[in-house]
Amino acid sequence: MSNPSPEIIEKVKQWLAFAEEDIRLAEHAMKLKSNVPSRLIAFHAQQCAEKYLKAYLVYRNVDFPYTHNIRRLLDLCAEHADWVDNISDAKELTPYAITARYPGEDEVVTPAEANSAVKLANQVRQTVRSALKDLGLDPP
């Protein structure tokens, strides 16, 4: 694979910056002493994982659908990476992209589920950051 262009590198860094905002917000919300918004924590954890996977795909110059389906994104990454099996549990984050955002879905997210979502997002985060570093990009 040839080195990505400066434009691609900039786009990857934008995806990573947005993902970092999501995980920071999720982790901050977990520290609230009352009225902890578990569904929003789970949503932002899902968003972090999704954006990290998309950043990797952008770096590898892989077109991807605008989907919230983590399994689909992992499948696309698997065509270019050997680390996907290590984070396959991240597919459990997919429902939080929709059910945690919209009323009427009646999906309650417990504090334990929110905590698990953040842990999964951080696993994706660490894995993709390491993979990008191995490819020559030092993630900000």
Tags for this model:
140 residues; mainly alpha; Four Helix Bundle (Hemerythrin (Met), subunit A)
Describe this structure in words.
This protein has 140 residues and is mostly helical. It has a single domain (6-134), classed as Nucleotidyltransferases  domain 2 (Four Helix Bundle (Hemerythrin (Met), subunit A), Up-down Bundle). It is built from 4 helices and no strands. It has helices spanning 6-30, 38-59, 70-78, 111-134. Helix 1 runs antiparallel to helix 4. The longest helix is centred in the first third of the chain and has 25 residues, at 6-30. The radius of gyration is 15 Å and the shape is globular. The two termini are 22 Å apart. The mean pLDDT is 93.
Task: Please provide a brief summary of the model.
This protein is 57% helix and 0% strand.
Average pLDDT value? 93
**CATH-defined topology:** Four Helix Bundle (Hemerythrin (Met), subunit A)
Total count of helical runs of at least 4 residues: 4
* Spatial separation of the terminal alpha carbons: 22 Å
Radius of gyration of CA atoms, rounded to a whole number: 15 Å
Domains (count): 1
Number of strands: 0
Low-confidence stretches: none
* Helix and strand sequence: HHHH
CATH homolog superfamily: Nucleotidyltransferases  domain 2
Strand content: under 5%
Helix content: 55-70%
Shape: globular
Question: What summary fits the major beta sheet?
Answer: none
Secondary structure class reads mainly alpha
CATH class category label: Mainly Alpha
CATH hierarchy: architecture? Up-down Bundle
Oligomer status: single chain
